[in-house]
């Protein structure tokens, strides 16, 4: 039995798809299929029911999943202890980012990490919420900043901040916006982000609670582009409150006053990597940068 087989099993159980598991673990679909099949043959039980485009756990697969995760956790702890015994922490630390660097205090974090771990190669990668989750779950990324209504249950998380988002519109629509109701807002032109972007997930859920969906006319891949398009008068969007207030003071946009949308900013990581020295150092520096106690999770 190999660790990569257990990782394929646990990741596939979480994602429910061989295709997404292969993408998350950066291997081919046939390789994932072969790894799971080899594990099933060694264990003598079928772990998954296979259907076109989707897999689901059998009863045996459900029963063994927690034990498999414990084995991966133990392996991660063992690797962490071995690195501690080696002395200096080396290797690579890959951190996912989900927003503009300043709002994440990314510069302060990286400066502290470079000072504390001079031999560690540190990289950051921007990603959408679901992509970041999958990469952290698969182990291809040690941790990531994550913004959502709640932190993902499949992962550990250090909650850094609760922030608010606001519905904003071009300044030229001030009169219409201030008297608009939910249905009026939904019918106005909206500037969207990709489906798995944290602001789009917040926006979709916000209107779904009203039994509505916003009229999306443009999709942009960054919030900065969305801000620019609102200023240009193209439509409405969901914007972080500090940004919205700053732009409203300059009369660059108008804020719909009837709702604030809360979201958590956190740092997510897999339980199996919580003893990795580089991750331990990252979490410690995050607590210091954000002024959190050492016991907070």
Structure write-up:
- With 297 residues, the protein is α/β, with parallel strands linked by helices.
- The protein has 3 domains: 3-84, Winged helix-like DNA-binding domain superfamily/Winged helix DNA-binding domain (Arc Repressor Mutant, subunit A, Orthogonal Bundle), CATH 1.10.10.10; 87-146 and 272-290, D-Maltodextrin-Binding Protein, domain 2; 162-263, 3-Layer(aba) Sandwich (D-Maltodextrin-Binding Protein, domain 2), CATH 3.40.190.
- It is built from 13 helices and 11 strands.
- The strands form 3 sheets. Strands 3, 4, 5, 6, 9, 10 and 11 form a 7-stranded mixed sheet that branches. It has a two-stranded antiparallel ribbon with strand order 1-2.
- Helix 1 packs across helix 2, helix 2 packs across helix 3 (29-43) and helix 2 packs across helix 7 (129-138).
- The longest helix has 28 residues, at 59-86.
- The mean pLDDT is 90.
Features:
D-Maltodextrin-Binding Protein, domain 2, 11 strands, DNA-binding, 23% strand, alpha/beta, Arc Repressor Mutant, subunit A, 13 helices, transcription regulation, seven-stranded mixed sheet, two-stranded antiparallel sheet, globular, LysR family transcriptional regulator, 3 domains, WH_DNA-bd_sf, 297 residues, single chain
The CATH class label of the largest domain is Alpha Beta
CATH architecture of the largest domain: 3-Layer(aba) Sandwich
Mean pLDDT: 90
| Outline type | globular
Proportion of helical residues: 40-55%
Q: What's the total helix number?
A: 13
N-to-C CA distance: 33 Å
Number of strands: 11
Poorly predicted sequence stretches spanning 5 or more consecutive residues = none
Fourth CATH level, the homologous superfamily of the largest domain: Periplasmic binding protein-like II
Secondary-structure content class: alpha/beta
Rg on CA atoms, Å: 22 Å
CATH topology of the largest domain: D-Maltodextrin-Binding Protein, domain 2
* Biggest sheet details: 7 strands, mixed
Strand proportion: 15-25%
**Succession of helices and strands:** HHHEEHEHHEHEEHHEHEHEHEEH
Keywords: DNA-binding, Transcription, Transcription regulation
GO molecular function, one term: transcription cis-regulatory region binding
Domain HTH lysR-type: 1-58
InterPro entries: LysR_HTH_N, LysR_subst-bd, WH-like_DNA-bd_sf, WH_DNA-bd_sf
């Amino acid at each position: 039995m190999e660790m990569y087989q257990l990782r394929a099993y646990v990741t596939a159980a979480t994602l429910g798809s061989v295709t997404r598991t292969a993408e998350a673990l950066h291997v081919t679909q046939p390789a994932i299929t072969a790894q799971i099949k080899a594990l099933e043959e060694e264990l003598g039980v079928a772990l998954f029911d296979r259907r076109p485009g989707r897999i689901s756990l059998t009863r045996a697969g459900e029963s063994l999943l927690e034990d498999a995760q414990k084995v991966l956790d133990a392996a991660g702890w063992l690797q962490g202890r071995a690195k501690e015994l080696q002395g200096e922490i080396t290797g690579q630390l890959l951190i996912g980012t989900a927003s503009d660097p300043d709002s994440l205090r990314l510069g302060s974090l990286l400066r502290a990490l470079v000072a504390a771990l001079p031999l560690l190669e540190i990289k950051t990668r921007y990603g959408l919420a679901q992509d970041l989750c999958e990469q952290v779950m698969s182990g291809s990324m040690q941790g990531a900043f994550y913004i959502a209504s709640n932190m993902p249950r499949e992962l550990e998380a250090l909650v850094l901040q609760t922030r608010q988002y606001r519905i904003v519109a071009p300044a030229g629509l001030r009169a219409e916006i201030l008297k608009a109701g939910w249905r009026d807002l939904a019918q106005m032109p909206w500037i969207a982000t990709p489906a798995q972007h944290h602001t789009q997930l917040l926006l979709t859920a916000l209107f779904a609670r009203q039994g509505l969906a916003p009229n999306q006319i443009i999709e942009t891949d960054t919030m900065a582009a969305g801000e620019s398009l609102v200023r240009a008068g193209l439509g409405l969007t969901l914007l972080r409150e500090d940004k919205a207030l700053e732009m409203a003071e300059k009369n660059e946009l108008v804020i719909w006053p009837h709702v604030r949308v809360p979201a958590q900013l956190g740092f997510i990581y897999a339980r199996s990597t919580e003893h990795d020295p580089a991750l331990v150092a990252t979490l410690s520096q995050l607590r210091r940068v954000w002024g959190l106690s050492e016991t907070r999770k």
